[in-house]
Amino acid sequence: MSLDDRLRNRIRWRCRRGLLELDLVLNAFLERHLDELDAGGLEALKSLLVRSDPELLDLVLGREEAAGVGERRLLALMRNESCNPVQHPN
Predict the structure, then answer these.
(1) Is the pTM of this model over 0.70?
(2) Structural domain span for residue 76
(3) CATH number for position 23
(4) For the chain, N or C: smaller number of CB within 10 Å?
């Protein structure tokens, strides 16, 4: 197992949260984007995952804004309708 594989496995584990809403969003994001992330994207994701559940939920929902450019880019992807596990009827 390569270093990247171990890092990705650790990230998958850290995406298991105490809030169902975060689990749904983070797992949908991982399925669609984890393999596409470069080293900077992985670092930004790791920095998001060290936050508490309420703080991370506020960031994901757009109630708060992250300071880092990489974090903001990932949060925009998470907010994207294509990663939204709950589809709302129009």
Answers:
(1) yes
(2) 3-80
(3) 1.10.150.250
(4) C
Q: Which amino acid is at 65?
A: E
Percent of the chain with pLDDT over 70: 86
For the chain, the domain total comes to 1
**Closest residue by Cα to residue 41 from 68, 16, 59:** 68
CB 57 within 8 A of CB 22: yes
CA-CA distance, 70 to 54, in Å (whole number)?
A: 20
- Asked if residue 82 has pLDDT above 60, the reply is no
**Burial of 87 per CB tally in 10 Å (0-12, 13-18, 19+):** exposed
